[in-house]
Amino acid sequence: MTNFLWVALGGALGASARYGVGLLLINFSNLFPFATLIVNIAGSFLLAWLFAVQYAAPAAEQQLWLFLGVGVLGAFTTFSTFSLDLVLLLQHGDWLKATLYALLNVFGCLGAVLLALWIKI
Q1: Domain boundaries in the chain?
Q2: Which residues fall in a coiled-coil region (predicted)?
């Protein structure tokens, strides 16, 4: 149960940070979705950095990963997780899985958005 609390606390902070970035860039939102772009790139960088630090120091606390990686960055952007998963597949030489994963994520998500708009959820 403690692990769920770490994730929940981190998630609250990550979601709040995501909202804050949107507020900071609200004046530019009509030009381009800068907030989403910045959040996705920053989240991808931070999750990969955290993963590398955790990998280099395997004795690091699981709660730190749950709080920062799953909670904060997971709520900040899930694109960061997608990006890390994709790069790890590529690093392991799983080109077919990586390609399939990328295509399914991009086109699956776009398809889901189009479907939701079509049926007006």
Answers
A1: 1-120
A2: none
